[in-house]
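Technical annex, item 7. During the second reporting period the consortium partners agreed on a shared format for inverse folding records so that results from different sites could be compared directly. Each record opens with the tokenized structure and is followed by the designed sequence. A conforming record, contributed by the partner at site C, is shown below for reference.
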């Protein structure tokens, strides 16, 4: 495919949306921090969440659409058959002395969803129960942004 055709595809618009999201932050200072989310991607399971950001400033956690589902990513299944493999997601290495602003961003549109309350526990974690799935409007890719305030 030639670039004159490719730039008209939805993926090219999503690259522009990603650029706008990252430009709100010092994106050039971002580093990968897989230790900020559990479970997280690994060499044997790339479908799990990815985390990156700037310590004590901002974290962006990418949730691939399939990360919560206990299915083979190469199979097509009926949504009725979904079995969730994780009941909780932990956002780690937070400070109980800090406050955070958290919200989802739809990476397909760039739309920011309403802010969520971040409750940091005594282990310096924010444990997100299965309500994370119900707070996502769809089982598609999502970004979770945590900003230190």
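Designed sequence (site C submission):
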């Amino acid at each position: 495919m030639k670039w004159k055709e490719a730039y008209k595809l939805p993926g090219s618009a999503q690259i522009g949306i990603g650029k706008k999201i990252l430009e709100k932050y010092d994106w050039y200072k971002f580093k990968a921090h897989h230790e900020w989310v559990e479970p997280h991607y690994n060499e044997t399971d790339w479908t799990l969440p990815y985390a990156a950001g700037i310590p004590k400033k901002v974290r962006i956690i990418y949730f691939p659409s399939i990360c919560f589902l206990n299915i083979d990513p190469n199979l097509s299944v009926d949504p009725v058959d979904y079995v969730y493999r994780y009941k909780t997601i932990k956002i780690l290495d937070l400070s109980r002395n800090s406050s955070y602003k958290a919200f989802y961003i739809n990476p397909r549109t760039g739309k920011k969803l309403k802010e969520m309350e971040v409750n940091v526990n005594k282990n310096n974690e924010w444990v997100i129960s299965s309500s994370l799935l119900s707070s996502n409007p769809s089982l598609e890719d999502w970004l979770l942004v945590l900003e230190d305030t």
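The chain has three helices and eight strands. The helical segments are 3-6, 10-22, 131-135. All partners now use this format for quarterly exchanges.
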